[in-house]
Each structure stands twice: as C-alpha cells, then as structure tokens.
Design a protein that fits this description.
Largest sheet of chain A: 5 strands, parallel
Shape of chain B: globular
Number of strands of chain B: 6
Number of helices of chain B: 7
Structural class of chain B: alpha/beta
Radius of gyration of chain A: 16 Å
Radius of gyration of chain B: 16 Å
Strand order of the largest sheet of chain A: 2-1-3-4-5
Structural class of chain A: alpha/beta
Distance between the termini of chain B: 5 Å
Shape of chain A: globular
Strand content of chain A: 15-25%
Strand content of chain B: 15-25%
Order of helices and strands of chain B: EHEHHEEHHEHEH
Largest interface: A-B, 37 and 37 residues
Largest sheet of chain B: 6 strands, mixed
Oligomer: heterodimer
Helix content of chain B: 25-40%
Distance between the termini of chain A: 14 Å
Number of helices of chain A: 9
C-alpha cells in the first residue's frame, strides 16, 4: 500500500492551501493510496535553537512534536508539503518544522551516518503545494529552495510544485478554474508514478 | 536632527554570527553624535507567528497581544531598521520569519485600508539594513530569504532603493564571523554610511 502524507502548514484551517492539499490527497486515495493529513497548527514544537548539538551527535536535543513528525514524514512514500505564501515565503510554522530537520542534514554531511540510495530517492516523491493571493508570478520563488532542503534531508525526490497565485482575483481556490481538479490529478499521478503506471 | 536606529537580532543563538554583525553595525552608528540605537532580540521578545486571521485587514491592528504589540510603532518610528538573521535551510530562521509575517499589519494598513503607514514628511527618508550570515559557501544561499526581507521593508515604509544588504556566507560555528577577513570592516562601514545618508536626508 502506498502511503501518502500531507502536511498542512497554514495557521488557519480549511483555507485555500489546505483545500488544495485535500484535493491532492483525494486524488491519491482514488489511485489506491492510504492517506493521512497532519495540521501543523495542532502540534506543539519549538523552532530550531541553532545549538548545533546535532552536528556532533546527529540527534536533536529538543523533545517535542517536531522530530516524531519528521520521522513519520520520512516513512511516507509520497509527501505533500503545503503552505500559503506569507510575506513572499512559507509560513513561520512550516519554516519552524523545516529548520528542525537540521539533524538530518547533519547526519548526511557532518556525521556521515545517513545516505540515500538512488533507488530510495526514486521510491520517495515529494511535492509542494501552495497558494498566494498576489498576482506576482515570482511569489513562490523564495519557497522552493527551502522545500528542496527539506526533501533532500528526508530522502525524497522533489517531484514538483502544485502552486496557484492570483487567488484574490478568483475569490479563493474554489473559484479558480483548474486548481482543485489539477491538484487531484497530481495526487493520482504521484501514486501512479510509484505503482509504475 | 537626532537619528534613531532599531536593530533586530533574529537568530535563536545569542551572540552568534548574525548578532555579531548587528552589534558591529550598531556600534559604528552609535559612535556618531545624536544617534540612538536600540537592539531587540527576537527570540527573547515573545513574538508569535501570524495566525492568518486577516482581522488586521479590517482594523489595522493585530489581534494578538504579545511582544510584537509594542514593536509595531517602534519599527515605524525608527529612522533606520536593521534586521540581522542567520540562514537556516536556505531561508530565514523561523523566528525571524515569524517577526516578518507579523508585519502583515502594515500591509493591511497600506493596501487594504489605504492608511498612511508612515507620515508623509518621513517618506523616502528611512533606511533598512539587512544583515545575514550562512554556513554554506554557495553565493545563492541568501536568494530565498531576500524577497521576504524586501517585503518586510516595503510594507514598513522603506523603499527598495533604501535597503542595504550585508550578506556573509561560509560562517557556521559560533564566532566564525570574527575570523572573516572583511565582515567587521564591512559592517562598520555600512553603519557609518547609513548615518551619513540619514544625516543628509534628515538635516544636521
């Protein structure tokens, strides 16, 4: 069974980005996957302290919801990371979680205790979903390198972006002519890619 | 005219590389007559993330009451706002991002409510200095952070052309910036240049 995990990084529930994520997960279920959604605002975790203890040990010293969640994320087959754009970037909640993945970077590049094979990367696919009210075409650009850093740490191929801007004009994601159907199709596609369809 | 400078240390690590850059800039500015500098340490200031409730689009103020409440006016009152942050995972440290996201209040005032964010007579006179450090050697390590910083200054009434960046990479462990060949001199020069510019704009 293909496991698809959606992570919603929006502080408010059932907004444009979470609806886009829901459509993606629905498509994944239609393709036969088991799906789960985690809402970051319902969890309790602190941002990274920058203590660099993980650079020596490969382990984060802060005990809260972040590390168990990152371990769950690493265990998914398809990982869908969703965040609205605030001030030209992902939300502070999602950035807080991503910063906590520093211990994975440390394992890969400092302690040299973690390495992902090409086969592993091929079997783990990550997508980024986002929405923005602004009509600027470059509104998502600042998010991609950060999401890429997360997927690299967790051992996922960065398979693509499902992003829609200018949503203020459409009156939200449900008013957009294609966003929800395309997100659903992307969910089907990602599961299909792992099943060799 | 007296010059007021407000500096923000955006790192979770106290007295680390980005805060050291900030200290150098503030020290250079404070050494000039009639310049008052203040430093706010974001990680100690109790600044929660934006909830995305959009209430500020109706009221022009934030519904959350925390360390940010008193900072809203102080940012706008400063002639120079200095923001220092480390790059984590190719972006601003989450604590700094939370601070910037709370500036949504200014955006609501400016674009939704059409209020003057700063008084007419101070427009075009203020400066924003962004100081960042990164462990990575890649020059593009700062690219993803800059749009958010620009966004912050823009809504807080600092024009794009009035933003100066000092970006120092290849500094990771605490204290590394002290061994950097030019960081200290660059930071002091940036602070002094900012005072000269502000003096020209605000008058003697």
């Amino acid at each position: 069974m293909i496991r698809v995990l959606g992570v919603s990084g929006s502080p408010h529930r059932h907004g444009n980005t979470e609806r886009l994520l829901d459509a993606f997960l629905e498509g994944a279920r239609e393709a036969g996957a088991e799906t789960e959604k985690v809402v970051l605002s319902s969890l309790s975790y602190a941002p990274c302290r920058g203590c660099n203890a993980c650079h020596r040990t490969g382990v984060c010293i802060v005990k809260d919801d972040a590390i168990p969640l990152l371990e769950t994320m690493a265990g998914a087959d398809v990982l869908a990371i969703a965040s609205p754009i605030y001030s030209m970037g992902i939300t502070a909640e999602l950035k807080g979680l991503i910063d906590r993945a520093q211990y994975l970077w440390a394992r890969r590049t400092v302690t040299n205790t973690l390495e992902y094979s090409p086969e592993h990367l091929a079997r783990h696919r990550g997508v980024f979903l986002s929405t923005a009210g602004s009509d600027w075409p470059n509104v998502f650009e600042g998010s991609y390198p950060v999401v890429k850093a997360l997927f690299s740490g967790l051992g996922f191929t960065y398979a693509g972006n499902i992003v829609y801007n200018d949503l203020d004009r459409y009156g939200g994601v449900q008013g957009h002519p294609a966003a929800l159907s395309e997100a659903k199709e992307a969910g089907r596609h990602e599961v299909g890619a792992l099943l060799g369809r | 005219m007296p010059i007021t400078v407000l500096g923000f240390a955006g790192s979770p690590r106290r007295h680390g590389n980005s805060e050291t850059l900030l200290d150098w800039v503030l020290e250079a500015m404070a050494s000039e007559p009639d310049v008052t500098v203040e430093k706010v340490v974001i990680v100690d200031a109790d600044i929660r993330p934006c909830r995305g409730c959009n209430a500020c689009e109706r009221t022009g103020v934030c519904v959350q009451h925390d360390g940010m409440t008193s900072l809203y006016d102080r940012v706008l009152e400063a002639d120079c706002v200095v923001l220092a942050a480390p790059i984590y995972c190719m972006g601003l440290a989450a604590q700094t991002k939370a601070f910037i996201d709370r500036a949504q209040v200014y955006r609501s005032r400016k674009y939704v409510l059409h209020w003057p964010v700063i008084p007419e007579e101070r427009k075009g006179k203020r400066l924003g200095l962004f100081l960042a450090t990164a462990g990575q050697a890649w020059d593009h390590v700062f690219d993803a952070a800059l749009p958010s910083v620009k966004c912050f200054y823009h809504v807080a009434g600092v024009r794009d052309r009035d933003i100066r960046n000092l970006l120092v990479n290849r500094v990771d462990e605490a204290g590394a910036v002290e061994r950097h060949p030019s960081a200290r001199a660059d930071a002091m020069a940036l602070g002094l240049e900012a005072v000269v510019t502000l003096r020209e704009r605000l008058g003697p």
